[in-house]
Design goal:
D-Amino Acid Oxidase, Chain A, domain 2; 3 domains; globular
């Protein structure tokens, strides 16, 4: 069986190592440039308390990412996926919608046109006319001047992939979603916030994200994966060290690959991500997440969670915020939901650039890069599904490519 070298020790690299082992590989190396596994998913820890700068979702028990981790002893707590959203209204206060984390907007029509091209703007145009302006306004608020260049795959990350049409007839709407895949892809129904048995389930890493990656480290060692931390591998070095029959999985940032192939690095949408973590008292459910679609203020998401027996609140913001003003804004965003909130000490804050959202140009360039990556490193090259927005989609892409490459190598060895 081939040697599998994985570059990048974030969640994608860890999953690639587990998947390679499941597919029969036993000679596996995992290289991480920093001192520990986890990448951007690893939160800061202080006295055992996790200060999470951003929301990282895990689905219910049938989530393929979670299944792969649980197969190696990574434990998850089953939690109710308690969510809510705050949406603009034509007059008066904003609209608070429990049980739904997307925009809830006045709309009776649910007909959906064909999206106009691969851009996010082209996807928004497919919605009924009354939905286009509030959605476009929100996207401009989140992405700034570059919003017109965003690819349609940004819709899921921004939370605007599916809309709750407030004025649609419920019975007709439910029937249309069952019979028309496009309507189902663009519209959704809210959960019943009082019928807890019907709530969608989610997974929360038992003991937090730090514990998740520590367990992953132990599990990888136990199955024989050679973990090399503080190991930066440049593309040209990987090429020199690449042996016939090797499988190379590039789970790290693809930007160095563009430079290796003398191609310009496509411009991604650089946005500012400011995160503020507060100590909190909250009488409502935990974990609980509220998304703000009003395009007012600076905070686009509030997450309440527990860590080491303490309740913490993370406010994710589109730009740097004044902590005093932010306290008022956070209270306003959660005031329409079940629970009373008291914010305590600001425990940490950070303002960082993020390249979460891809442009149409970048998605096309990444597809071309995959072809050149395969030509340069041969049939054993595996990419990370860089252009996919959701972690589950990236994992499915990676698992599919890895399975095909390893199967081909087995056939070649047997011939």
């Amino acid at each position: 069986m081939s040697r599998v070298r994985i570059i990048g020790g974030g969640l994608s690299g860890v999953l690639a190592a587990f998947e390679a082992h499941r597919l029969g590989a036993r000679d596996i190396e995992l290289h991480e440039r920093f001192e520990q596994l986890g990448g951007s998913a690893l939160p800061t820890e202080r006295h055992g308390v996790e200060l999470r700068e951003r929301f990282i979702p895990f689905g219910p028990k049938d989530d393929p990412v979670r299944q792969r981790l649980e197969a190696h002893g990574v434990a998850f707590d089953e939690v109710e996926n308690r969510v809510g959203s705050v949406s603009p209204s034509d007059a008066g206060p904003p609209r608070y919608t429990p049980g739904f984390d997307g925009p809830a907007l006045p709309c009776a029509q649910i007909a959906v046109d064909q999206p106009q091209g691969p851009s996010l703007a082209g996807r928004i145009i497919a919605f009924p006319a009354e939905l286009r302006e509030p959605l476009a306004r929100y996207v401009r608020w989140r992405l700034g001047p570059g919003s017109t260049e965003a690819h349609a795959n940004a819709a899921a990350s921004l939370g605007v992939a599916r809309i709750l049409p407030l004025d649609a007839d419920a019975a007709s709407f439910a029937a249309a979603r069952r019979s028309n895949p496009r309507i189902d892809a663009f519209f959704a129904m809210a959960q019943n916030p009082w019928a807890h048995d019907d709530m969608d389930a989610a997974g929360e890493p038992a003991g937090g994200f730090g514990a998740l990656f520590r367990r992953c480290h132990r599990a990888l060692r136990q199955i024989g994966v050679r973990i090399q931390e503080s190991s930066f591998v440049a593309p040209r070095q990987a090429l020199v060290e690449h042996r016939p029959g090797d499988v190379l999985v590039w789970a790290a940032n693809p930007a160095p690959l563009f430079r290796m192939f003398d191609r310009p690095v496509p411009r991604l949408l650089e946005t500012s991500h400011a995160a503020y973590v507060f100590a909190a008292r909250w009488t409502g459910p935990r974990p609980f997440r509220v998304n703000n679609f009003t395009a007012d203020g600076v905070c686009f998401r509030v997450c309440l969670y527990e860590s080491a027996g303490r309740t913490l609140l993370t406010a994710e913001c589109a730009k740097e915020a004044d902590p005093t003003d932010l306290r008022y804004e956070v209270h306003r965003l959660v005031s329409g939901f079940e629970g009373d909130l008291a914010l305590g000490e600001l425990l940490c804050s950070s303002v960082k650039p993020r390249w979460t959202y891809q442009t149409v140009e970048a998605v096309a360039a990444l597809a071309q890069l995959r072809g050149e990556f395969g030509q340069r490193f041969g049939a054993g090259a595996v990419s990370n599904g860089w252009e996919h927005g959701a972690p589950t989609e990236r994992f499915r892409h990676l698992a599919g490519e890895l399975g095909a490459v390893l199967a081909a190598n087995v056939r070649a060895s047997a011939a």
